[in-house]
Amino acid sequence: MQNKSIAELAADLRLRKYSSTELTRHYLDRIARLDPRLNSFITVDAEAALAAAARADEALARDEGRPLTGIPIAHKDIFCTKGVRTSCASRMLDDFVAPYDATVVERLAAAGAVMLGKTNMDEFAMGSSNETSYYGPVANPWDTSRVPGGSSGGSAAAVAARLCAAATGTDTGGSIRQPAALCGITGIKPTYGRCSRWGMIAFASSLDQAGVMARSAADAAFLLDEMAGFDERDSTSAEVPVPDYVDALDNDISGLRIGLPKEFFGEGLDPRVGAAIEAAIREYEKLGAEIREISLPNSPLSVPVYYVVAPAECSSNLARFDGVRYGHRCADPADLEDLYTRSRAEGFGAEVQRRVMIGTYVLSAGYYDAYYLKAQKIRQLIADDFKRAFEEVDVIMGPTTPSTAFALGDKMDDPVAMYLNDIYTIATNLAGLPGMSIPVEPVEGMPVGLQLIGNYFDEARLLNIAHRYQHLTHWHQAAPAGFE
Ligand code: GLN
């Protein structure tokens, strides 16, 4: 069952080959049996999942369901879920139970999807390896001595190991695409504002975007169809009509103009990853696409710009965790100052504290112009590069990451080396554009991701372009050994 696509599962449920309750039990059993090796879930709520499955079965019996009715999924533990703990993988929120569902959670539940539980992640989504989680690291199912990527590492590992049919993720600088690439799955970060951020715990509000992690573009389209769209509760959510993503999957792509940014193929890229990406591009040529070299001259500045903007926003967003209203509170505070400082020192891990300190520094009166303002200016130049590129091409392609998954523990002592993992993904967030990662030919058994970057609100085309490749190839169907 676990190897079937969402379309196949939905068809089986309709034909009563098995019920959603049976399907949900199957996934819960897999989680119980296999997740101890991965640690991809922080919370599993079997009772709530089986109750949702029973409701789905009733809807199916009345021939009512939608495409996702009865399909078991998981949510990154950054999305608030009413009655189920939302920890953001932080000690700060270890016992936090939200009084409401995030819009994305609400919409997928209304569509009939069954939530199995909440997936592990880097603390407050800060990281590229899932090693900053308060609940311990997640292992990559393709090689459990390696990282799954981050920050949505739990969702990526769970989808790759077939512990759920699909999962949600969030992407502030690469957190959907990078773990999707390292775990051999398909991930899409939509345009900024496409999916509501309401109820999604904020890291860097001008960059954060919810999206989907699934095994294929077609599976992702089913979820995005339900998640996307305007939400009046999120002032940055876009009032732009949502096309039917599933409908667009099979569109012809002959004549497609693909741009390859020369900055994405230079120094720092593992040549074996580069070769796998080039082989994938050749498949697109067979499909009638036209390849052009382009330049995104300011993109090499995206990592330094991001590490000013994102910490600045995070220092402001995380100011709400003060030990007073909710979250961790230290024992026996001597006074108010002690309450704040000790609660935060105990509640936040090292990486989160580093970001808060960098953020308050770059926003401080004496350094604002030198760092924050300058970063904002370069951010605009980075967005302008893309604008020019999209006058010439329909989609931009390149590697998602410079290398395949690295070993657990490898980069934890060197934050800059860790940050450089997102060298190809961050510019997209700074510009607010949609991006995707799809699995291509692996390197020595480890997955490699091809990144697709589209113009604003061009998700339907990205999914279509990805689907055409997946129609032709089988890399997205490969399953990690030992997780049968
Ligand atoms: N790895 C990046 C960071 O550490 C991006 C994280 C994300 O997209 N949430 O900030």
Label the overall shape.
globular
Low-confidence runs of at least 5 consecutive residues: none
Please count the beta strands (DSSP E, at least 2 residues each). Answer: 11
Strand order of the largest sheet: 1-3-2-4-6-5-10-11-9-7-8
* Most strands sheet: 11 strands, mixed
List ligands, each type once.
glutamine
Structural class determined from secondary elements: alpha/beta
Residue-averaged pLDDT, rounded?
A: 97
Strand content: 5-15%
Distance between the amino and carboxyl termini = 11 Å
Run of helices and strands: HHEHEHEHEHEEHEHEHHHHEHHEEH
Radius of gyration: 21 Å
Helix content: 25-40%
Map the helices and strands:
Blueprint: H1 6-14, H2 20-34, E1 41-44, H3 46-61, E2 72-76, H4 103-110, E3 114-119, H5 153-160, E4 166-170, H6 177-183, E5 186-189, E6 210-214, H7 217-227, E7 257-261, H8 271-286, E8 290-294, H9 302-317, H10 336-347, H11 350-363, H12 368-392, E9 395-399, H13 415-419, H14 426-431, E10 435-443, E11 446-454, H15 459-472
Parallel strand pairs: 2-3, 2-4, 7-8, 7-9
Antiparallel strand pairs: 1-3, 4-6, 5-6, 5-10, 9-11, 10-11
Helix pairs in contact: 2-3, 5-6, 7-15, 9-11, 9-12
The structure holds glutamine.
Glutamine (GLN) binds next to loops.
